[in-house]
Amino acid sequence: MSTAALRAGALRAPLGRLHEVADGVHAFLQPPGGWCLSNAGAIVGPDGPVLVDTAATRSRAEALRAAAEGLGRGPVRTVINTHSHGDHVFGNCVFDPSATIIAHELTGPEMTAVGMGLQSLWPDVEWGELTLRPPTVTFARSMTLLLGDRPVELHHVGPAHSTGDVVVWVPDARVLFTGDVALPGCTPFCLMGSVRGSLAALDRLRAFGAETVVGGHGEVSGPEVFDETERYLRRILDLARDGVAAGISPLQTARSHGLGDFGGLLDPERLVGNLHRAYLEIERPELPLGAEMDVPGVFGEMVEFNGGRLPDCLA
Ligand SMILES: [Zn+2]
């Protein structure tokens, strides 16, 4: 085994598993979260489990499929993607080709544009054999799935973490799957979405009245994660306003102010990406929220902020 493989093996988090958070509603958690260790969900219905997201690597997606099918309701016929990022959609391809994949209408085009690009950030990860499987059913604002007599609501709340962010609300269980709009224990990340849009999305998320929140990464939480996320994002806006006024770059602002109270969150280098997005929203208010940015260039600055490399990806 190569040194790289040994190193990668030593740094891999265990495969995720299901935790029942309400009757028939399961969270597939991949602690500790962080880069590419994404959560997923399985909601039991009469026609099999309906999944929320599908994990980053082949082995993780296969573990999710096995766990969901282990619920005893047959194979997975329906998958919801909360957004286009590879750690939430790469696993789509392990499900039967006849499975329906539902997402916001921006998700498919974004997946196709970015392709498997995420893999190049962490070449040591054992991604396994993966092919891109875009959505087969899309919507613009919201849709409701009826799992027997249980409604499951899908709502577009982007641009927030990305442009096509969808949250999944199970009203009778008061469970909300937020995708990456909420990341308990991890640093929020709006580089590919919007800071102001994220704040608006948090208000919408609060209005559901969820008791249980399954974020896109990290532990299961309650609605307090919305307040913590808002506190982080308001600091980003404050720092960006000061940085713009002082004429210094997002990276310089990040270096001079540091992580503040948020040094305990995973993936703190996202500070630089979040500041870039906030600067754009302050300096170019005429642009639509979620407008395209030089994402690879900003990742380069996040690497610089983090001392020359991204943190290890444990997927
Ligand atoms: Zn994401």
Q: Explain this structure to me?
A:
The protein is an alpha/beta fold. It has one domain: Metallo-beta-lactamase, Chain A (4-Layer Sandwich). Helix content is 32%, strand content 20%. The protein has nine helices and 13 strands. The strands form two sheets. The protein has a seven-stranded mixed beta sheet with strand order 1-2-3-4-5-6-7, covered by helices on one side. A six-stranded mixed beta sheet has the order 8-9-10-11-12-13, with no helix packed on it. Helix 5 runs antiparallel to helix 6, helix 6 crosses helix 8 and helix 7 packs across helix 8. The longest helix has 23 residues. The protein is globular and about 60 Å long. The protein starts with a helix and ends in a 10-residue tail after the last helix. Zinc ion binds next to loops.
Q: How many domain regions?
A: 1
Order of helices and strands: HEEEEHEHEHEEEEEHEEHHHH
User: Which class of secondary structure composition applies to the elements?
Assistant: alpha/beta
Q: What is the CA–CA distance across the termini?
A: 19 Å
Strand content bin: 15-25%
**Radius of gyration using CA atoms only:** 19 Å
What's the architecture, going by CATH? 4-Layer Sandwich
- Profile the largest sheet: 7 strands, mixed
Which regions are unreliable across 5 or more consecutive residues at pLDDT < 50?
Answer: 1-8
Which molecules are bound in this entry?
zinc ion
CATH class: Alpha Beta
* Major sheet: arrangement of strands: 1-2-3-4-5-6-7
Task: Give helix % range.
Answer: 25-40%
**CATH homologous superfamily label:** Ribonuclease Z/Hydroxyacylglutathione hydrolase-like
What's the overall average pLDDT, rounded? Answer: 95
Helical segment count = 9
Shape estimate: globular
- Compute the number of strand runs: 13
If you consult CATH, what is the topology? Metallo-beta-lactamase, Chain A
